[in-house]
Design a protein that fits this description.
The chain is α+β, with helices and mostly antiparallel strands. It has 2 helices and 3 strands. It starts with a strand and ends in a 13-residue tail after the last helix.
């Protein structure tokens, strides 16, 4: 069995570790100052919400880049398709194997 007990002081809020056999205080942990730091749950939730906004912004920008890239590629394809149709003129391309 454990040789120590843990209590929280009702006056100061510090955590005390006390020896069961002789009742002496072994260790004292001061109560964290939550008034200056604020509520840890609220600050954690705020950090999570900020991270979600950052990720949402990143993914929306990435989606816009993909749409722009798709439009650029479609325009380039149409341009090359028109130039290929204009260059056709009924000529058959030269086969490199026939050049020997």
């Amino acid at each position: 069995m454990d040789e120590t007990l843990f209590f929280i002081c009702p006056c100061c809020g510090s955590r005390l570790e006390i020896d069961k056999k002789n009742g002496e205080i072994i260790n004292i942990w001061e109560k964290p100052d939550t008034e200056q730091a604020g509520d840890p749950m609220k600050s954690s939730l705020k950090k999570i919400e900020e991270k979600q906004k950052e990720l949402q912004s990143y993914f929306s920008k990435a989606g816009e880049k993909l749409k722009n890239r798709e439009k650029e590629l479609n325009d380039l394809f149409e341009k090359n398709k028109k130039s290929a149709a204009a260059d056709k003129d009924g000529e058959k391309p030269v086969n490199p194997m026939d050049l020997d």
